[in-house]
UniProtKB/TrEMBL annotation:
Species whose genome carries this gene: Sphingobacterium deserti
Pfam families cross-referenced by the UniProt entry: Beta-lactamase2
Domain Beta-lactamase class A catalytic: 30-245
GO biological process terms on file: beta-lactam antibiotic catabolic process; response to antibiotic
Name of the protein in question: beta-lactamase
Family: Belongs to the class-A beta-lactamase family.
Single GO MF descriptor: beta-lactamase activity
Catalytic reaction annotation: a beta-lactam + H2O = a substituted beta-amino acid
Enzyme superclass (EC): hydrolase
EC numbers on record: 3.5.2.6
Length: 287
């Protein structure tokens, strides 16, 4: 666990550079950056609420592991998939044959690595739903991080924010707590973190760091909102950041979507600010 012994300090240069970078963005954007070793931060609408889209799968992960911690669930337990669970969007489970078996560990991996929606909805059920996950988030001090979908009493918020909601500061805090083993035992925390390190969708922020650098992350995308939270093990020290957007004018599902392009530029700016000796130039994505 990091302990600096002094209060967080605003990184004025990086804040200035990022504000210049996001000026003129047609939508709302929030950014929170924390360099853990130096305890420097950047806050741009860091406490505003944004849709999580698939980033909600990080709280779902914590919810599942809460059940594992209590003994109610086991990673090697098998479950039977039926076609009644078929659901659109990202993922592979919707292609499974009827009555195929899958264990919980594989389900979690699909939820996080491929952002599988079928696996994610199933994991949400196994975790006890939003009724169990939301109080857990509050217990962790994350009062604005909520599961809205399939959660009684949150229908209006589901219409406003979708599956889940959070703030840049809170989702960074959650990723940091997972990494530092502050939620469950070190053994369970390490297992959660290993799942988050394997990402199929690696062409946003992750494309802006050298391939040898270890990261853990989760992206989220719906028509009018694109977001990402990333924990980076940089040579000069770990840093973690979130970029969340909403009400985006550009709602295209293309790689040159404005919010996704901007996220890459933000990630590259953050990397080169903290790692000037390991400057990394952005390059064209591979078709």
């Amino acid at each position: 666990m990091y302990f600096t012994g002094y209060a967080q300090k605003t990184d004025r240069k990086l804040t200035h550079n990022l504000k210049d970078l996001v000026a003129g963005f047609e939508g709302e954007i929030g950014i929170y950056v924390h360099h853990l070793k130096s305890n420097r931060t950047v806050e741009i609408s860091a406490d505003s609420i944004f849709p999580t889209a698939s980033i909600v799968k990080v709280p779902l992960l914590v919810g599942v592991f809460n059940k594992i911690d209590s003994g109610a669930l086991k990673l090697n337990a098998n479950y039977r998939y039926t076609l009644e669970r078929e659901y659109g969007g990202s993922g592979l489970m919707q292609l499974f044959k009827d009555s195929a078996e899958i264990d919980l560990s594989t389900m979690i991996s699909l939820m996080l690595t491929y952002s599988d929606n079928v696996a994610s909805i199933w994991c949400q059920e196994l975790a006890g739903g939003g009724q169990a996950i939301n109080p857990l988030m509050e217990k962790l001090g994350l009062n604005e991080t909520k599961v809205n979908s399939r959660t009684t009493g949150r229908e209006k918020l589901w219409k406003q924010y979708g599956w889940g909601q959070t703030t840049p500061r809170e989702i960074v805090k959650l990723m940091t707590m997972i990494r530092q083993g502050e939620i469950f035992s070190p053994r369970l925390s390490n297992k959660m973190y290993r799942y988050l390190k394997n990402q199929f969708y690696n062409e946003r922020s992750l494309s802006q760091f050298p391939a040898y650098v270890a990261t853990a992350s989760k992206t989220g995308s719906v028509d009018a909102a694109r977001g990402e939270v990333v924990f980076v093990h940089g040579p000069s020290g770990d840093f973690v950041f979130a970029v969340l957007t909403k009400d985006n004018k550009d709602q295209r599902w293309t790689r040159d979507n404005t919010a996704e392009e901007l996220t890459r530029k933000i990630a590259n700016t953050i990397w080169n600010h903290f790692e000037p000796k390991h400057e990394f130039a952005p390059f064209d994505l591979i078709d």
